[in-house]
Structure formats: structure tokens, C-alpha cells
Amino acid sequence: MSGTLYGVGLGPGDPDLMTLKAHRLISSARVIAYPAPDTGESFARSIAAAIIPASAREIPIVVPMRVDRFPAQDIYDKAAAEIAGVLRAGEDVVTLCEGDPFFFGSFMYLFERLSEEFPTQVVPGVTSLTACAAQLQRPLTARNDVLTIIPGPLPDVDIRAKIEEAQAVAIMKVGRHLGRLKSLLKDMGLLEQAGYVERASLPGQKVARLVDLKAETAPYFSMILIYKGDEAWTLPPSFSS
Amino acid sequence: MSGTLYGVGLGPGDPDLMTLKAHRLISSARVIAYPAPDTGESFARSIAAAIIPASAREIPIVVPMRVDRFPAQDIYDKAAAEIAGVLRAGEDVVTLCEGDPFFFGSFMYLFERLSEEFPTQVVPGVTSLTACAAQLQRPLTARNDVLTIIPGPLPDVDIRAKIEEAQAVAIMKVGRHLGRLKSLLKDMGLLEQAGYVERASLPGQKVARLVDLKAETAPYFSMILIYKGDEAWTLPPSFSS
Asked: CB A77: neighbour CB atoms within 10 A?
């Protein structure tokens, strides 16, 4: 009997926003895998750090951070091979995933390599999308609005077209695109309706109206939320966390 | 000192997918509010039933279920007035919300009436969006895909236009629109790429390829997920839960 591969969503960062199921799986895990940068701490591991058993075997998947480029697939070939060895030996592997495993996450790279051979279970988590809306104190959508989620690295022309079509918009992975996105939204007359959240639910969280934001770059984990619908949801001028 | 209004996301239905924070707030609550139908059980309350203190005061917000019509706003005027009375007396009110409070939820009706006068905290929850993807065993998006979330009650012409523009699509609130949506997706050549999930994470959950689905109507809590991107994510012919 082979082990089960678990992809476990950890939520946006505050360990208190982990699900009961994630908490239980992690705190009883014997083998834990997680993405890790080549220098510094793994964000996913840091969310769960307090409940990872001291006896657990840890498999960090070291992904060099390169701006706006997707990771070399040989990293996941190697990680999948190591994890497959553990699963074949009958041991479960709990993979820690920031946010939700299937919402713009890297878990899919393991999933597409392992889920045909091994039993796989995905445990959904709170996404940064709704965590940011909670911190902005503004609903994402009303009634029958269409919500469009756009990766910030896309070209201006694509982002503009998507925003024009939508009632509610989230721009993910803002990072070094912040300055460009501010210019674009200013040009579209949407700056006043845009909210900005960085490190949602974590220490050092920042919440602001985009129009008040001086910075031109942001951390990778940052988001812009725009509401264009009929409801009068404006952000107060003094808004910040 | 007035009390705090909490909007607490409960996740998609399995109590195990509640966050630690939701669990703590509910199990220590003295006053709990939740949406309830005019006949039958409150879905939100049923998710949290096992941890609601016996001593808690309960405020059901009775919303008559009418197909495809948004609830009369006087229901929320009345509920907000009752909750305001509790908050003014210095007591916190924990409002139970299916999924996430700000993701297509009814909590916004209380929020827009009460959040200016009273301290308000929104606790995000796991949405049906990612819970359905987990059950379908298919990532929602890859890399820099745009994800569009469309309410099923919208007219065909609008839904078609949104789907044509997107790489990944979720159609929410499928309900009685199932037959119409199946015809539309067949016409667009997307039936084979569409997955269907009903009652995600709950007893009686149903997971299927849309092409294999005989039914013409579905429960309100049902979703269609479509992936049009480059990755070869197909649903196996035998797929069902």
C-alpha cells in the first residue's frame, strides 16, 4: 500500500487562519514537504512552524527566486522523485502550500507528476483573495457581479482589457509591477476605487488606498482589489491599517 | 464600549474546513446570528452546530428563498436593527457565513448597515471555489492564467463573452440554470473540459464531468469549473466521486 500525497492549504499567513483539517494533518505528519527559497526561510514552513512535529522528516523543495520567471521544471522532477520514494514506501507526505494548493500555487507541479500513480488529497485553504478583501473591509462582489482575477505580470494591454470587462477585479502578484499598475489604473480613472494589501494577515501587513501609496514596487505577496460595480463601496481617505 | 460585529467564514460545509479562528470565535460566542430559510434548517448554522454554545443567544435572519431574486432589503434593515441593539449593549455578535463573508455572500447586507457605527472584523473562510477544485482534482489556474468567476443566473450572451475571454472559469450558483449552461458550453465546444461539483465537502457531494451529467437542474450550491488554458488537464471519462 502506497502512502497518500496531501496538498494542504495553509491560508494567507496567520496560523489562526489554517483549517482544522490542515492543523490536524500537519501536527501528526511524519513527512512534510514545502517550497523554500534558495536563501532565507520558507514562507509556507513558517506558517506551520509551531505545529510541525520535531520528529518529522522535512523535504524542502528549493526553488531559486527569479523575478517573473516560472521555476525550472527539473526542480519538480527531482522533488517528485524523492516524494515518490517516500509514498512507495507506504508513508504519507504532507505538502505545505501557501493559501490554497490549486489557486495560483506551485503544488500543481507536484500534483501533475504524482497524482496518477499515488492517492492524492487536496485540502483547500483560505486564499489571499478573500483575506485581502477582509483586511480592506470591502466585499469582493455584490449580487451577480463577475469577478476577474488577473496576474500582475501580464502586459498592460491584457490587464486593461480584462478590467474593462469586469465589475470586480483582483490583481495578484503585484510585486515589482506596482508602479506600472498604478499608472495604468490612473489612466483608466480607477485609482480611487482601488485598494492595496500587502502581507495580508501577517505581521507587517499594509492596507491602503492605492491612490495614497507612494511606493513603486511591492513584495511578491501583494494584491490590488478594484470594485467597479454599482454599490457605493468607497475606501475612506484616511484608510490604512 | 460597543461590541464587535464579526463576519465569520465557515468554509464550504465540512466543519473540518473551518479555520482555527472561526472555531474559537464560535465556540466562545455569547450571541450568534446566521441566515436561515423560511422553512428548514440554516445551512450556515448546520456547519457550526456542534460548537455553538448551548447558552448562546441566537439571531436567525430569516430570508425567504425565492429563485433568482435578491432578498428584500427590509429583512436586513430589521436584522441590523436587532444586532445593533446587542452591539450597543457592549456584546459581540458572531455572524455565521457560508464560505467566505465577502465572496458572493449575504454578510455584505449587514456589513453595509453596521460597519460604520460598530467595530467590524471579517474572518475569511475557505470558498466553494477552491473546495470544488480540490474535489475535482484539477488546479484552477496555471502560471499567469486569468480566472473569471461568473454567476450562473446571468444571460447566455454575457456568460459566453466572459468565457471566450478567460483561460479558467468558475460558474457559481448553477442551480436551475444547469440545463441552459450545458447547452451553452456544448455549443462552445467546452463540455469535455468542464467539471461539475455539487455540495462540495458535504455528505451527498457529487463530482462529475459535465458531459456525463444527465440532470437539467442542480442545487443552489453547485459549480461548474472550466479550464481552457494550455495545460493538458483533462478529466478522466470515469470521473465521479
From this structure: 11
In chain A, what residues touch B125 (CB-CB under 8 Å)?
126, 130
Kindly determine whether residue A108 and residue B23, on different chains, have CB atoms separated by under 8 Å.
no
Closest chain B residue by Cα to residue A161: B165
Q: A9 and B130: CB-CB below 8 Å?
A: yes
A60-113 pLDDT tens trace: 999 887 655 666 788 999 999 999 999 999 999 999 999 999 999 899 999 999
* Superfamily the domain B5-123 falls into: Tetrapyrrole methylase, N-terminal domain (3.40.1010.10)
Spell out which residues of chain A touch residue B140, defining contact as CB-CB under 8 Å: 102-104
User: Minimal Cα–Cα distance from B38 to chain A, Å?
Assistant: 20
Homologous superfamily of the B128-227 domain (CATH): Tetrapyrrole methylase, C-terminal domain (3.30.950.10)
Which of B14, B126, B142 lies nearest to residue A108, judging by beta carbons? B142
Domain boundaries, chain B: 5-123, 128-227
Cα–Cα nearest to A16, from B170, B157, B128, B121: B121
**Which member of A19, A129, A149 has the closest CB to residue B18?**
A19
B127·A122 Cβ contact <8 A: no
The predicted-structure confidence for B173-198, as pLDDT tens digits, reads as follows: 999 999 999 999 999 999 988 999 99
Q: What is the pLDDT of residue A241?
A: 47
Q: Where would I find the beta strands (DSSP E) of chain A?
A: 5-9, 31-36, 57-62, 93-97, 120-123, 147-151, 168-172, 194-198, 206-209, 222-227
Whether ipTM tops 0.90, in short, is: yes
